[in-house]
Amino acid sequence: MPNRKVHVITSGLAGVGVAALEKKCIHPLEQLSHLVGGAVGGVIGGRTPDVLEPATSPCHRQCFHGIVPCGSVVTFGGAFLLETYRKLIAWAESAPGADTSKDQPIPLDRCFRFFVAGAYKGFLAGYAVHLLLDSRTPKGLPIVGKLGLAFLNEIPARIAA
């Protein structure tokens, strides 16, 4: 069964993988920023379902692990998610760049913007990989699950753990 370590490693790798597909990064530092962002976003996305619904029992998976809620976000929000990513890349490209013919350093702002775009894409991939791994366990994923908002009070303690 996948534990925290497995989720972190696989989600981080998934984040790097999807970030590596981006062809808009012109300078190597932009690409590196995008890949690091993908890794960070992947790790955060891979941890998010269990932060929101910690493994306190074998039946801990509910709404944030649910097939219908998560599938609905992808199905009905997929175009929005993709458009948001495109806007993030456009935002990154709009930052002043370095003149590569003069060996100028890349502005930190531009690298940060590519990092943010990579983190966004990595988060989505990390969350998806988490659900994919959990779906292969004996308990699988719930069809819908229930949404309990009591978890909101406990999030800071779970993040620190």
Question: What is the strand and helix layout of this fold?
Answer:
Elements: H1 4-20, H2 28-52, H3 67-94, H4 108-135, H5 155-160
Task: Offer a quick outline of the entry.
Helix content is 65%, strand content 0%. The protein is an all-alpha fold and 161 residues long. The chain has one domain (4-160).
What does this protein structure show overall?
The protein is mainly α. The chain has one domain. It is built from five helices and no strands. It has helices spanning 4-20, 28-52, 67-94, 108-135, 155-160.
Give the key terms.
single chain; 161 residues; elongated; 0% strand; mainly alpha
- N-to-C SSE series? HHHHH
Which residues sit in consecutive blocks of at least 5 with pLDDT less than 50? none
Total of DSSP H or I helical runs spanning 4+ residues:
5
Judging from the principal axes of the Cα atoms, what is the shape?
Answer: elongated
| Overall average pLDDT | 78
Radius of gyration over C-alpha positions, nearest whole angstrom: 18 Å
Q: Largest sheet, if any?
A: none
Give the structural class.
mainly alpha
